[in-house]
Write a structure and sequence with these properties.
The chain is an alpha/beta fold. The termini are close together. The relative contact order is 0.16. It folds into two domains: about 200 residues, UDP-n-acetylglucosamine1-carboxyvinyl-transferase, Chain; about 200 residues, UDP-n-acetylglucosamine1-carboxyvinyl-transferase, Chain (Alpha-beta prism). The strands form six sheets. It has a four-stranded mixed beta sheet, covered by helices on one side. Helix content is about 30%, strand content about 25%. The structure holds uridine-diphosphate-N-acetylglucosamine (UD1). Uridine-diphosphate-N-acetylglucosamine binds next to helix 1, helix 5 and helix 6.
Length: about 425
């Protein structure tokens, strides 16, 4: 198993360019199932999760050319589309469940294993299933599989989501593209990745309006064609490097970022005393003095992203004063607290909140990445900790950061990967 050895590195300085968003590209790939023609996707980051989705789509019968150098994908429709997605692939990555909506739309039947993914809570799929049922599908569960069937096709409906789930919004949106008539998704998620998916679907010939607001209107069309599409930049990676700049008291310029996508992160960094200069697609972060404690609450977009909570906790753990982080999106997303405390941080969990008492310094230690973003937080901690930090179980990090050590080394970090048999 690979691990990362991170040494105290001093201020990180320089430029870094952000690649395409994992949380967008996986959905664009799933949406390609709907197409009658080839879909070309650009800015596809080299990630394990992308490879898992390729294998899954191939297992369904699609043909895929992935040019890893050029970061482009060509996805050709299946001659005979299969409607069953097996356990071995679905349990590797929760986003694989997003093939269910497109399969149901295209085939009228889909059988998909219950999903896996990061261990950050129960992460049910009830809202996805309620959506499919509202569109007229009969949903049955058994032997670890979910089967959805709509013998006479899906029919548009009004669907209210109890919580603005990103995955449920996307799955239902894709399922509804070819349903008869109008579908309304109310209390829909508003994340930038939802807009990217809606744009992709519209380029394929769908009729999706209102993505990015809490009501999405989908008017069903007969069929969808191919398209060529550029994936949006990864706002979570951009935010991670913004935190890295503040944490190491460095000066990082982040290129290929949509500044409006990271507004809550910008706002919190400024509140702490960091300097953030932003234009439409470039952000520079640096510090001129000490950073102060702040409180924050994770929320669906445009609130503070849960995917940046762990990285911010690392930053707050070495800032002046006491901060409180309240996690409202996932019920079990504090598994990194034990790890960061092993490095000398002073974080206590109280229900859905973490109380962080800033300390002067962290110490290098052997720690493990408990999930994707937690892993990134430990790498950032290692950059400022005395001595060497060994981050184990970094396959989590590789699921979402295409080149974390290359990016960080480019900014002056002392970090290297050790491959162990
Ligand atoms: C996506 C992102 C993930 C991010 C999350 C929230 C991808 C691949 N992953 O995950 O990085 O942290 O959005 O921004 O895009 N829920 C239900 N029932 C459902 C669906 C969700 O109760 O049917 C709950 C979940 O348990 C969780 C909350 O809703 O507590 C948010 O989940 P959701 O927005 O669906 O996240 P994902 O799409 O899984």
């Amino acid at each position: 198993m690979a691990k990362l050895l991170v040494e105290k590195s001093g201020p990180l300085v320089g430029k870094v360019k952000i690649k395409g968003a994992k949380n967008s590209v996986l959905k664009l790939m799933a949406a390609s199932i709907l197409a009658e023609e080839t879909c070309y996707i650009e800015s596809v980051p080299g990630l394990i999760d992308v490879e898992v989705m390729i294998t899954l789509l191939e297992s369904l019968g699609l043909t895929i050319d992935y040019n890893r150098e050029e970061e482009t994908l060509e996805i050709h429709p299946a001659e005979l589309l299969k409607c069953e997605a097996p356990y071995e692939l679905i349990q590797k990555m929760r986003a694989s469940f997003l093939v269910m909506g497109p399969l149901l739309a295209k085939k009228g039947i889909a059988k998909v294993s219950m999903p896996g993914g990061c261990a950050i809570g129960a992460r049910p799929i009830d809202l996805h299933l309620k959506g499919f049922q509202a569109l007229g599908a009969e949903v049955t569960l058994g032997h670890g599989y979910i089967e959805a069937k709509a013998d006479s096709g899906l029919v548009g409906a009004e669907i209210y989501l109890d919580f603005p789930s990103v995955g449920a919004t996307e799955n239902i949106m894709m399922a509804a593209t070819m349903a008869k008539g109008l579908t309304l998704i109310q209390n829909a998620a508003k994340e930038p990745e939802i807009i990217d998916l809606a744009n992709f679907l519209n380029e394929m010939g769908a009729n999706v309006k209102g993505a990015g607001t809490d009501t999405i209107r989908i008017t069903g069309v007969e069929k969808l064609g191919g398209t060529r599409h550029q994936t949006i930049p990864d706002r979570i990676i951009a935010a991670t490097y913004m935190v890295a700049a503040a944490m190491t008291r460095g000066d990082i310029t982040i290129e290929n970022v949509v500044s409006s996508h990271v507004k809550p992160v910008t706002a919190k960094l400024r509140e702490m005393g960091a300097i953030v200069e932003d234009s439409d697609d470039v952000i520079r972060v640096y510090t001129t003095g000490p950073l102060k404690a702040v409180d924050l609450t994770t929320l669906p977009y445009p609130g503070f992203p849960t995917d940046v909570q762990a990285q911010f906790m690392a930053l707050l753990s070495v800032s002046e004063g006491t901060s409180v982080i309240t996690e409202t999106v996932f019920e079990n997303r504090f598994r990194h607290v034990a790890e960061i405390n092993r490095m000398g941080a002073n974080v206590k969990i109280e229900g859905h909140s973490a109380v962080i008492q800033g300390v002067k310094e962290l110490q290098g230690a052997q720690v493990k990445a408990t999930d994707l973003r937690a892993g990134a937080a430990l790498v950032l901690s290692g950059l400022i900790a005395e001595g060497v930090t060994e981050v184990d179980e970094i396959y989590h990090i590789d699921r979402g950061y295409p080149q974390i050590e290359k990016d960080l080394v480019g900014l002056g970090a002392k970090i290297r990967r050790i491959e162990e048999k």
